[in-house]
Each structure stands twice: as C-alpha cells, then as structure tokens.
Amino acid sequence: MKIKITIKEIRKYLDIETPEFPKYVAPLINLANQYAQGTRPKVVGQMSELIQEFEGKTLSRWEEWYLKKKPDAVRNATEKILQKLEELKNALNKIDQATVEQWVRDLVIVKTFAGLRFQEAILKKGAEIKGVAYRLAEPDEESKGIDGYIGDIPVSIKPHTYDVKASLPEHIGVKIIYYRKIKDGIEVDYGEIL
C-alpha cells in the first residue's frame, strides 16, 4: 500500500513552521530564483552532500551547522534573487495589452503551428534522405502512437528526453525518431530508420 505524505504533513510531523506568503509572492520569488540561480550549489553549497555530512537531528542544529559552514550563503542568495526581482518589476511595468496580445498570438497561433508542423518537416527530411515518400498519420494511426510514415515505415516522433522516461506506461510499437531543440532549429536522430 502506497501512502503519499505531503510537504505540509512532513513539516507538521517535524514541527517545522510553514511560512505564509501573500498570494503570488512565493511563485514569483521562485521564478526570480530560477533566473538568478541564487540557490545553485556555487552560491549555497551542494545541499545533498551537506545534509549527509551533518550529524545532528534538529532543524536548529542544522541551521547552526550550515551557517558556520556557509556563513554568506543565505545573504548572497537573497541578494541575487532580489536583484532579479527588481529586473522582473521593471519588466512588469513594460507589459501592456499589446504586449500580452502579441505573446498570446505567438503561443496560440505561431508556436502551435510550428510545433505541430515541425513533425512534418522531420518526416519530409527523413523521406528525402531515404529517397522515398512520406505522409502524416491519420487520426486512427495517431491513436496507436504513429505520427507519420517515411516510405512504408510507421514512425513516432518524440523529444530526446522521451527515451529516458522509461517509467512511462506507454508502449509504442513503431520506430521512433528522436529530436532535440537546439538554438537555431532541431537536431533529429534518424538512426532507427536509416
């Protein structure tokens, strides 16, 4: 039997206070931190190693021990995040209706079109390399995990990260073409069909 223990419950069981933040504040700080990289190992240390090195049992002992090891870490991380929050505040002040509309159009229209159509570009290029025809899958074929055909070979087109997701319950019984988005396009692995 599997039981989920939430972070909130873990904090409760360990008698750790949960700070309350105004609505949107924690996610905004988290976003700023992602950009600022304020809690990366070079700033705050390799936490997984530090917690293993720590021999105490309480939060207060951990805090004391950590701050002796890394006395400037919290201040340095805070400064990096605050600087990024200032940049985000400045950016927020530049957002108007036209900017949001442009962003929505780009997401809904342009990126959706390009995201759906780049599969066709992958099929077309593979067919060109093999000197055969290609076609996109029909809806009933799509339901079987087929994105298209290169010649008479049914293929599925997946991001390069898909093959490391071995725990996925989905099984695709066709050749897979992996792609990776790169700076100026996509890198495609046709290894299974060539």
Structure notes:
The protein has 2 domains: 7-93, no CATH class; 115-189, no CATH class. The chain contains 8 helices and 5 strands. The longest helix has 34 residues, at 97-130. With 194 residues, the protein is α+β, with helices and mostly antiparallel strands. Strand 2 (148-150) and strand 3 form a beta hairpin.
Mean pLDDT: 89
Number of strands: 5
Inertia-based shape: elongated
Residue runs with pLDDT of under 50 for 5 or more positions: none
Count the DSSP helices: 8
Rg over CA atoms? 25 Å
Count up the domains: 2
Largest sheet: 5 strands, mixed
Neighbour order of strands in the largest sheet: 1-2-3-4-5
The helix/strand series, from N terminus to C terminus, equals HHHHHHHEHEEEE
Report the span from N to C terminus: 46 Å
**Helical percentage:** 40-55%
Overall SS class: alpha+beta
Q: Report the sheet-strand fraction.
A: 5-15%
Considering the chains and any ligands shown, give keywords for the structure.
194 residues, single chain, 2 domains
Short description:
By secondary structure, the protein is α+β, with helices and mostly antiparallel strands. Helices cover 52% and strands 13% of the residues.
